[in-house]
Amino acid sequence: MxxxxxxxxxxxxxxxxxxxxxxxxxxxxxxxRSNFEExxxxxxxxxxxxxxxxxxxxxAFAGTIDRLQYSRxxxxxxxxxxxxxxxxxGAEACxxxxxxxxxxFYALLSLLRAGDRVVAARQLFGSxxxxxxxxxxxxxxxxxxxxGRDLDAWKKALxxxxxxxxxxxxxxxxxxxxxxxxxxxLAHAAGARVVLDNAFATPILQRPFEHGVDIVVHSxxxxxxxxxxxxxxxxxxxxKYILDELQPxxxxxxxxxxxxxxxxxxxxxxxxxxxxxxxxxxxxxxADELAAxxxxxxxxxPGRKDHPQHALAMRQLSAPGGIVAxxxxxxxxxxxxxxxxxxxxxxxxxxxxxxxLITHPATTTHKRxxxxxxxxxGIGDGLLRISVGLEDVEDIIEDLTQALAG
Length: 406
Ligand SMILES: *Cc1c(COP(=O)(O)O)cnc(C)c1O
Hints:
Elements: H1 3-16, H2 22-28, H3 54-62, H4 76-89, E1 93-97, H5 100-111, E2 117-121, H6 126-135, E3 142-146, H7 151-157, E4 164-168, H8 180-189, E5 193-197, H9 202-205, E6 215-219, E7 233-237, H10 239-253, H11 259-270, H12 272-291, E8 296-300, H13 310-316, E9 323-328, H14 331-341, E10 346-347, E11 357-359, H15 370-377, E12 383-387, H16 393-405
Parallel strand pairs: 2-3, 2-4, 4-5, 5-6, 10-11
Antiparallel strand pairs: 1-7, 6-7, 8-9, 9-12, 11-12
Helix pairs in contact: 2-4, 4-11, 5-10, 12-16, 14-16
The structure holds pyridoxal-5'-phosphate (PLP).
């Protein structure tokens, strides 16, 4: 076969990628094979790259040629993960980060300067709350927290100029829903760009860019890894934003994802859809069983009709996710007793694992924010959050039932 023919085949294969559906993009998106023609994505565990001559090194640093220089700037395994996640999320570009928190932090850092104002939903992951209310103020960045469910509160907060808006939906742990489209419109009118934390929904269940969101962040530690092995994160958005605004900061300060973790995660994306579907199916069963249990005061699951924002949730999400929260009538004492009686479900503050994990937010993930803030969020002493795993759902339900029976 001559060179022309090879080039034609390569071009036609590349062309066909444009019409790939989500499941295909998850398995093949971003794949770049080395000259060994390996089937599976290669792990390039290297910090640096070599130049054939001094002139090429000079050209690389001058930016006149585009090539790998150093893994803080780029690494082929990390790039495969970034390109695959971008293809799934429907983003022009992606930069992977060492953790979900570095993704949130760097997204905000890239948008904000001293004197700017950020508006965020009060329903935030604990460490996001710290960044907004304690860390950014040190650099002269003002903030306002609003109830993410309350459009009037968003309207009021965004009647003044702002540069960034941050929220997660569904939120942790109370599974509150933010109206993505409505809040994004208000944010844009105020001059702000929207950063949405899509960790709970994953790109399988929720597609924020279709609602006008500017930047999506992920904790890839959760469902994208999916088996509780590695930490990682990602920032996705328009190419111009990633290259001009984000990349100079990340390259020079170094929140890079390790190639090994990127390799685990790029393989994780291949099974993301299958896993998320199963998590959702198991969670829906668990939510219904818990709702029928006499010890349970209330179950929070966006897929249930008794979720106060069920209609909005089902407009934005293709399925309600793998997390269920529930309140025990007898409070903290009963919550602790239940946790300590579990025989299969593990007590852990992580989530998105194949293993079912349960936590008591008031004394763990949301302890730092204090009692007053917890009360505003509806995180009571009897609240438990379960990340429903991939075990046989009958075993999960049997375990929860025997633990609640005590
Ligand atoms: C876990 C989590 C984070 C933080 O991610 P890490 O990978 O632990 O740094 C941020 N946002 C949400 C919604 C999360 O669940």
